[in-house]
């Protein structure tokens, strides 16, 4: 069976936006698994995603406090479609990231991270795929707000797609 994934990070609700864009909620409803790499900011989004997503995997970020830190781990590990996925918020500076993450997570196939709001897709020398979906609500210095979708089946992550959201007026 092929499993569809929606990959999010750095939603910063309700600070950077009042809600997720409608396109992202549609993707939530369509996905088998929703992954969120932290900086939710408000527990309301966790509750809503938890109620709408078929399966939710999330971690807390540096801007998450209180109940978010109580309910979410700093690092999550799951297997989806035979793919070993880890989720963290911060990975440190971009320089040396691939080597650091390969050393820290030798048992993973994919590591999803956030924090920078900068989309990232690379594969390390050890075969670890690093993915950052950017942010669907706070583009910072990026040209677009973004999120990722992918599929997992038979131990392979496929169809990784960066979605660019239209600029809010």
Description:
19% of the residues lie in helices and 31% in strands. By secondary structure, it is an alpha/beta fold. The chain is globular, with a radius of gyration of 15 Å. The protein has a single domain, classed as Metallo-dependent phosphatases (Purple Acid Phosphatase, chain A, domain 2). InterPro entries: Calcineurin-like_PHP_lpxH, Metallo-depent_PP-like, Phosphodiesterase_MJ0936/Vps29. Its EC number is 3.1.4.-. Keywords: Metal-binding.
Furnish the topology, listing elements before pairings.
Elements: E1 3-8, H1 22-30, E2 33-36, H2 43-52, E3 56-58, H3 67-71, E4 76-80, E5 83-87, H4 97-104, E6 110-112, E7 120-123, E8 129-132, E9 145-153, E10 156-165
Walk across the major sheet and give the strand order. 3-2-1-9-10
**Secondary structure tally, helices:** 4
Q: What do we call the CATH homologous superfamily?
A: Metallo-dependent phosphatases
Total beta strand runs: 10
What structural category arises from helix and sheet content?
Answer: alpha/beta
What sort of overall outline do the alpha carbons produce when their principal axes are compared? globular
Helix content: 10-25%
Strand content: 25-35%
At the first level of CATH, what is the class?
Alpha Beta
Within the CATH hierarchy, at the fold level, what is the topology?
A: Purple Acid Phosphatase, chain A, domain 2
The number of domains:
1
Order of helices and strands: EHEHEHEEHEEEEE
Could you give the distance between the termini? 40 Å
